[in-house]
What we know:
Elements: E1 5-8, E2 18-21, H1 28-56, H2 59-80, H3 83-89, H4 97-121, H5 126-154, H6 158-183, H7 186-205, E3 209-211, E4 217-219, H8 232-266, H9 269-279, H10 283-305, H11 309-345, H12 348-351, H13 357-379, H14 384-408, H15 410-449
Antiparallel strand pairs: 1-2, 3-4
Helix pairs in contact: 1-6, 1-10, 2-4, 2-5, 2-8, 2-9, 3-5, 4-5, 4-8, 5-7, 6-7, 8-9, 8-14, 8-15, 10-11, 10-13, 11-13, 13-15, 14-15
Amino acid sequence: MTPVRASLTMSAEAPIVFATQEDKSSSLCSDFSWTFVGSAIYAGGQFATLMLLAKLLRPELVGQYALGLAVVYPVMMFTNLQLRAVLTSGTRQKIHFGNYLSLRLLTTLLAFVIIFALTQVLRYGRELTTVVLVVGLAYAIETISDVYYARLQLHDRMAEISKSMIARALLSVPALAFATYVSRSLLWGIAGVVLARVAILLGYDVCERTHGLSGQSKWFSRNEALSPRFDPKELRALVWLSFPLGIVVLSGCLNSSIPSFFIKHALGERDVGIFAAIGFMVSVGNMAVMALGQSAYTRLARSCAERNLAAYGSLLGKLLVFGAAIGASGMIISKLAGREILTLVFLREYAERADLLPWIMAAGGVLFMAQFLGFGMTAANFYHSQVVLNIVANLSLLAACYWLVGRRGLLGAILAMLIAAIVQLAGSVMILVIGLRTQVHPCAESFETT
């Protein structure tokens, strides 16, 4: 079976975002390699950010940074509405790219309003509120870059996306290190990250060069098709289509944010910082999960569109095995060398809680498998069922945190995360099994017999 490739048509004369083309593109292995390298360096930059903050600042200030992420990340991910997934799925072929960009700009502005309102509801002081808003600004820049990544992903040009992520990491970390070291201020350190991300957005993402279908190079920044385009009818259609995905990703992000709020209330900002440092070890595996999931997503979506259940199930099964293997490996490494790793990467006071590492890697392994199934559900257009599932998972997390954090401390927070991840994984399996039997399998059977 010849795969149908998704292509971006970027000329002003042909403003349609998605068109099917027979296109020479990289294999899954090549896409994964580029995406993994880019994600690894980017995640390494995120890890280096936390490590530098832990070494240069007090744990309380690291806790402020973690609280900033806990507030900002769910809001930003919700208002993003997963437009990149919608654009690259090809389910809406006649929506101009400019409308995607316009909607992203509008929802990012809305995110800032929501973030500020949350800081007031939570009664954060001026210092913490300022930190949260600057963290929000840093992530706002990323959301703008993300919508430009989508049109590259349609061409399967994962290498270009990876180059941007690599450049962003290599510029952001030195900027944060220099600003934090000189000022000994968390706020100025994050401001350095903001400036670095703005430089990459304006200097590379918007002006990034690629090859058109004719083989000639084009500067996208000179192309009318990449300018914002405010079409109320199309914007409404996009919001209606993508809003369930925004709910899904919001509830998914709350899995990492909810424990931080309970820890702050029960234990204080210092323990939030320690929990953030230990929890960030899961990102070592998560970068591989996200890289492979992004690389495999268009193939999962294409298999569903072609009603090829065999290819879809085979690829999803391999992803699940990969996720389980990462979690198991993380548990073994944490058990054997967890204390040494935390002492080397952070400080001795963080290594005192090395007993938590195997537990958090266990929760991470279950979550990795659930994330892969999330890619599969989105590729199969199971949007609304994910909303219900994520609400149930978050309710279980809230209940578990309420019951366990006060009694078991940081271990209670991790156990609550494990419970919610198990609920997420079990529910995802049920949705896919029932959904594919009723919607995809009959079509897949007829497809295989033709």
